[in-house]
Amino acid sequence: MDRVPILRLGDCLLVTVQVDMHDQLAMTLQDDLTNKIVATKARGVLIDISALEMVDSFIGRMLGNIAAMSRILDAQTVVVGMQPAVAITLVELGLSLPGIRTALNVDAGLALLRSVLDRSDEGAHVD
Amino acid sequence: MNRLASRLPALIEQHQQEILTDWVKMQLESGAWRGGRLQESQLREECQRFLSLLANNIQKGQQFDTRSSQWSDVREFLTELSRSRATQGFSPSQVATFVFSLKQPIFTRLRDSLMKEPTMLADSMWEATVLLDALGLYTTEVYQQARESVIARQQEELIELSTPVVELWPGILALPLIGTLDSERTQVVMETLLQRLVATGSSIAVIDITGVPTVDTLVAQHLLKTVSAAQLMGADCIISGIRPQIAQTIVHLGIDLSAVATKASLSDAFALALKRRGLGVTAAARG
């Protein structure tokens, strides 16, 4: 069975979805990712879905779930590279993915993640 | 009536040249031929081609049904003719007259040669009428189709023209909307905006609705959808150009725009966009 590769990038994890997500693959990814966050003590997760051309409500909800789980494990999630067609579909499905940060590409996503992490670090110092 | 029983075939073959001369002359005299738009030589050539195709088909004693495949060469010729005249600005009746005006020369010949046989004359005239009417109506049909395709193309062009996405600054896009927003247009607007966001890597889009005459719940919903889609892709939207009446309407309708930054004018929105990107405008030092 194929898996979605999860790459480590400093204290962040880079998930690149290269194939069309089917439900089982999404469940596996959820498992793998939570394990990997705990194992590597990652602070941020970048999910690159630029190769994803089709989404359904299940995948939309999965993205939301992954973000919520990562947050509980103290990692910030940024979804990057969403295709216009995918964005339109999600909006038409009524899924605006509240609570998920988004960025246009991996570069912008990494910068966003960096600034969010820096801010939360400063917050920790103040406490 | 499947086959031509009358004398029409023989007659057209015998008098083809005379019919042609009469026909061209009549068209030149009538209003169907508009000086300047069409050269006389061109008209003569077209008439000659049509008449020879027609004579050819009638000669073979082919089926009388002009919709059958045997008449396809005549139909092709007429299609081309109607199309070109439709784009040149001829009216439908002028185009149909091209075929209908052939009746008189043919009828004259029929009368001259069949003066002693009234039954045959009537039959032949009837057949010629049916044939030419069918062909004439066919030109009108094609003319209409040609016009409709022109209208459809213009409609598409209008939709494309009405949704320009402009780059105000590297990373800041503006989408000036003009005219009423319906579902179809919103779809196009949304797609163009999102595609341009990807293409330019912009993170902020200003949607200017100064040119949108009315905002109802549907338009507002379309706008909010566009904004959410852009947000999903990682870009922020600012809505600008909200006129006082529209602000009142939005509140009266109970539309919640609190999720989106709104500004009264495009320049305010641009200033906000620059600020979000960490940029600013300062007066140049006088020197």
Question: How would you characterize the overall build of this protein?
Answer:
The complex is a heterodimer of chains A (127) and B (287). Chain A contains 4 helices and 5 strands; from the N terminus they run ββαβαβαβα. With 127 residues, chain A is α/β, with parallel strands linked by helices. In chain A, strand 3, helix 2 and strand 4 (76-80) form a beta-alpha-beta unit. In chain A, helix 1 runs parallel beside helix 2. The longest helix of chain A is centred in the last third of the chain and has 21 residues, at 106-126. The model of chain B has no long low-confidence stretch (mean pLDDT 83). Chain B has 287 residues and is of the alpha/beta class. In chain B, 62% of the residues lie in helices and 9% in strands. The termini of chain B are far apart. The longest helix of chain B has 44 residues, at 118-161. Classes of the chains: A alpha/beta (127), B alpha/beta (287). Chains A and B meet through helix 3 and strand 5 of A and helix 8 and helix 9 of B.
What secondary-structure arrangement, pairings included, does this model have?
The complex is a heterodimer of chains A (127) and B (287).
Chain A: E1 6-9, E2 12-16, H1 23-40, E3 44-48, H2 57-72, E4 76-80, H3 84-92, E5 101-103, H4 106-126
Helix pairs in contact in A: 1-2
Chain B: H1 8-14, H2 16-29, H3 40-59, H4 72-88, H5 92-100, H6 103-113, H7 118-161, E1 166-169, E2 172-178, H8 183-200, E3 204-211, H9 217-232, E4 236-240, H10 244-253, E5 261-262, H11 266-276
Parallel strand pairs in B: 2-3, 3-4, 4-5
Antiparallel strand pairs in B: 1-2
